[in-house]
Amino acid sequence: MFAVPLTEDAQLRPLEPWQAVEFLAHMDRAREYVDPWVPFAGLSTDLESARAVLQRHADRRAADTGGIYGIWRDGVLVGGTLFVSLDAHSGTCEVGCWLERSAEGHGLVTRAIRHMIDWAFHERGLHRVQWVNAAHNVRSAAVAQRLGMHLDGVLRSAFPYRGQRHDNQVWSVLADEWPKKPTAAGAISPEDVRVPAERDPAEPTPA
After folding, report:
1. Within the chain, where are the H helices?
2. What's the whole-number mean pLDDT along residues 63-80?
3. d(CA 78, CA 102)
4. Which among 72, 140, 154, 181 has most CB atoms closer than 10 A?
5. How far apart are CA 71 and CA 184, in angstroms?
6. CB-based contacts of 4: which residues, under 8 Å, 6+ apart?
7. Quick check: 19 and 70 in contact, CB under 8 A?
8. Under a CB-based contact definition with an 8 Å cutoff, are residues 110 and 94 in contact?
9. pTM
10. Do 137 and 37 contact (CB within 8 A), yes or no?
11. Which domains does the chain have, with CATH numbers?
C-alpha cells in the first residue's frame, strides 16, 4: 500500500476498516478537540462504530465518490484527510482534514492536502477543489490561504452544533490556478517544499 512522506517522521497513507482499533484510540485522544469540526469524531465511540465509519469511507472510495487517509507521525495515527465528496463527471471534489493537538505545528495538514490536490488535478483531471470550514475556525481558513485558495463566500447559519447554528466559509482552487505537474527532470522532492509555520496551537483544528 502506498505511503506519501510528509516530513522525515510523518506519512500519509490510506485509512482502512481493519485499522479500526487504531482509529478508535486516535479518536479517543482527539475527540474533544476535533469534534466541533469533524462529524465522524462523535460517531466513533466504540470499536463497532469506528469500523462502520471507516467502512463507509472505504465504500465511497470504491465507488469513486470519496475516501479517507491517515496521517501517521512516528508510527502513531495523529490525524488524517479525506475527500468529503468527489464527482468525476462534474470535475469537482471537496477535501477536508483533522489533526490531534499534539501533532500541530509541523505543517502536516498543509502538506497532506497539497498532495491530495495534486492528485485531484494531475492524476484525475478534476477542475475544481473545494474546502469548507466553520467561519470561526481560523486554523482551517489559514490552511486554505496557504494553499492559495480563493474565498468564494460564506454560507450563513449553515450547520447546527450543540444548540447553535454556525456559518461556513467556502474556499476553492481551480486546475488552471494550481502549479503544473513538474517534469521528471524538474521534479520537486518533499524536502524541497517549504510550508509556512502553523498558526497558534491554541486556535481550533482545521475541519
Report:
1. 20-34, 47-62, 108-118, 138-146
2. 96
3. 8
4. 140
5. 26
6. 11, 12, 13, 112, 115
7. yes
8. no
9. 0.84
10. yes
11. 4-192 (3.40.630.30)
